[in-house]
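Predicting holo structure, fe (ii) ion bound.
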Amino acid sequence: MNSKLKRIVNKIKDESLREKILGLLSDLSVNFGASSYSGMPIEEAPASRFHHHSYPGGLLEHTLSTINIAMAICDSIEKIYGGRVNRDLVISGVLLHDIFKPLTYERGENGAYRNSPLGERLDHLTLAASELIKRGFPLDLIHIVVASHGQAGPISPKTIEALICHIADEADSRMNAEVLNAAKYLVKEATGEVWDKMDSKTAFRILMLKAEGGWEGLKKNITVLKPG
Ligand SMILES: [Fe+2]
Ligand SMILES: [Fe+2]
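Done. Tokens:
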């Protein structure tokens, strides 16, 4: 398993929950009768086809960043508002909220992401709900996953842990989408080109070139960042 993901799993204090999550992460396949679907490895998967983190490794980046944001919200709730949060549930919820996405995507002949045959029939939240129920995960954790899209999903968050995960998910997705959009706009203005394949690290470098060197600095240095 990916070492960064494992480090996050190890923060879960409840041993039986931690073991269950380790078991799930090491076998994400789902079975329908005689057919088994397993999808692309987590390390290679995007977090969405076009909206945010839509490049290899995007899902892992999104999961790690969403954990950071969620932990900052937990700190704020506990230290400033005097509330109490079950961090095991928050960590587990963020880890699992998009974990079945790799099963719903595949790469087309042109390299672009598209829905897999499974993804054309079931979305990642439905898959997560059925699989987590089947594997005996706690109801409060399944709720966090199913409520992670907030009002846009099948059910809105009804616990503080679900609300934290939803807000953190939305914050990270939106930040990534807006930074990528801004970087693509700068590239178009500076070079006249469209860079479709861009990851977040390149996008942040482009934003920094513009912030530090203005349009001139950007035009002079941007070509070395062009994705291959
Ligand atoms: Fe999602
Ligand atoms: Fe997400």
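Residues 176-225 form one domain.
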